[in-house]
Inverse folding.
């Protein structure tokens, strides 16, 4: 029955034959680690350096996680946090935060300009957060982790993670909306 | 509320991602290829048949809304012995023809539920909650083997519609004109709902054992489908000759039987009893070799597998351990 072909693909992961696809895993994890650092430090070049350091530390031992890819992902994020902590200790104050989105994009110059301005604005807001708040925001919105995963990584209880994130996002939202209105208002005043 | 935060994610630059990947693999002194030197050939065969079969189940979304009345659930798992070389030859034929199977079906598959990334869990209970099933755990493990972790693979569901012209062209190309599907199948839709799976890993040194459990996948079928014909096509693609395929297709209940093609060169199989139920035991014939990051090659005993159905759930145990150990682990599940 040809209709068995699709379930067979599903069944493959039941079998010892499920070859670990490290390339796919790399493709899936790199954006999360990279964005974690972007949100954490607000600098694309630095995010690349720290993401590379993280993968270099993790990659050599990845075969230990051949059958536990989710375990590898958790371990990778643990290393990323430590790399971030080491960087913070070694280099204070942090790099200015206006360099997000300096990359070339396919968008129009106008759209790029808007995105760059918004990124810079967001970074200024993120820079006002304390270490813990910024760490949680970076894990949530940069690394795309859920509250449970963040709790496991940080040792903060899941409910506490939810509370801190809720409070922090609400405060950021308020400032974000406020700074949007200010931008509009100043734009109207200074044509 | 938090869209303004989500909107600022960016993909890493392509050059950066590609260079880093190359450096990572060069750093351990090998090409960026899979670490396993030799795949367990059963897997290769299953993958081959799945790849070919996916094409056969080629879809479009034009028949959305069609009435479904039949349902396939796995009630029994069985195996058929196939000639791996035949399957490999078919896969090679397709590769040589430069047919991009994924591309051919890509715009015709309707995703009903896209699987998210695998999630790790701290316990069987937590994994079960995520997957929505009661997860069983072994009360006995081989000496020195310990629980290494829990992973949940997300549900995946798609709708496909048979494109008979495409399928039959492919079957002609594979020189299997006898396996052509009838025109009446054209435009019929099939819904595949593959539920979340919980994978519990156990380790002892370099050896890893895995226990996978999930609700049965469900395939919703149009009424009046001649499943014997589909079964025959599947068996022919899997490498069975005409007489064998005809005989097996006619004697199999395709509404509840999941058939795994097992290459005779790579594995043996037989039915055993697990927890009072019929189970399929597949015994690998070939050792599996792994290369460590330092280039050291480790050879592991052949992989053995046990599949069975219990209370509507599919179970699989895989590892380089003996049949007796697999059975004892399975029988100790609670």
């Amino acid at each position: 029955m040809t209709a068995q072909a699709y379930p067979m693909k599903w069944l493959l992961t039941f079998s010892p034959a499920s070859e670990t696809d490290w390339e796919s895993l790399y493709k899936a994890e790199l954006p999360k680690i990279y964005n974690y650092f972007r949100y954490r430090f607000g600098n694309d070049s630095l995010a690349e350096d720290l993401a590379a350091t993280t993968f270099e530390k993790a990659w050599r031992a990845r075969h230990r996680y051949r059958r536990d890819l989710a375990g590898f992902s958790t371990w990778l994020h643990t290393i990323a946090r430590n790399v971030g902590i080491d960087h913070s200790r070694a280099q204070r104050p942090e790099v200015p935060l206006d360099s997000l989105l300096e990359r070339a994009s396919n968008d129009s110059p106008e759209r790029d300009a808007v995105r760059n301005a918004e990124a810079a604005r967001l970074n200024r807001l993120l820079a006002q957060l304390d270490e813990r708040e910024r760490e949680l925001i970076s894990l949530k919105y940069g690394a795309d982790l859920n509250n449970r995963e963040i709790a496991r990584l940080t040792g903060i209880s899941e409910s506490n993670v939810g509370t801190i994130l809720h409070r922090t996002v609400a405060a950021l939202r308020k400032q974000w909306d406020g700074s949007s209105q200010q931008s509009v208002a100043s734009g109207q005043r200074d044509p | 509320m938090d869209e303004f935060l989500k909107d600022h994610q960016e993909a890493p630059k392509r050059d950066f991602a590609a260079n880093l990947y190359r450096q990572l693999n060069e750093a351990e002194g090998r090409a960026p290829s899979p670490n396993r030197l030799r795949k367990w050939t059963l897997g290769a065969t299953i993958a081959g048949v799945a790849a070919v079969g996916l094409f056969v189940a080629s879809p479009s979304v034009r028949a959305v809304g069609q009435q479904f009345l039949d349902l396939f659930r796995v009630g029994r798992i069985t195996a058929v012995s196939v000639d791996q070389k035949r399957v490999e030859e078919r896969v090679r034929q397709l590769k040589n023809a430069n047919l991009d199977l994924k591309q051919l079906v890509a715009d015709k598959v309707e995703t009903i539920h896209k699987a998210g990334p695998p999630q790790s869990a701290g316990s069987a209970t937590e994994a079960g909650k995520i997957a929505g099933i009661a997860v069983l755990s072994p009360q006995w493990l081989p000496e020195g083997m310990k629980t290494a972790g829990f992973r949940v693979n997300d549900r995946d569901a798609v709708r496909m519609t048979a494109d008979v012209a495409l399928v039959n062209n492919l079957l002609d190309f594979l020189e299997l004109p006898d396996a052509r599907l009838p025109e009446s199948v054209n435009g019929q839709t099939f819904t595949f709902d593959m539920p979340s799976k919980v994978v519990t890993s156990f380790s002892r040194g370099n050896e890893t054992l895995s226990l996978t459990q999930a609700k049965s996948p469900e395939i919703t079928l149009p009424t009046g489908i001649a499943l014997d014909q589909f079964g025959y096509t599947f068996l022919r693609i899997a490498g069975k000759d005409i007489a064998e395929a005809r005989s097996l297709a006619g004697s199999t209940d395709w509404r509840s039987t999941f058939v795994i093609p097992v290459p005779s060169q790579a594995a043996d199989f037989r039915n055993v009893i697990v927890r009072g139920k019929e189970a399929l035991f597949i015994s690998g014939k070939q050792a599996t070799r792994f290369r460590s990051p330092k280039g050291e090659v480790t050879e592991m005993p052949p992989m053995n597998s046990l599949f069975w159905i219990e209370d509507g759930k599919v179970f699989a145990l895989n590892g380089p351990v003996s049949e007796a150990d697999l059975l004892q682990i399975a029988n100790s599940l609670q």
Remarks:
- Chain B is about 30% helix and 30% strand.
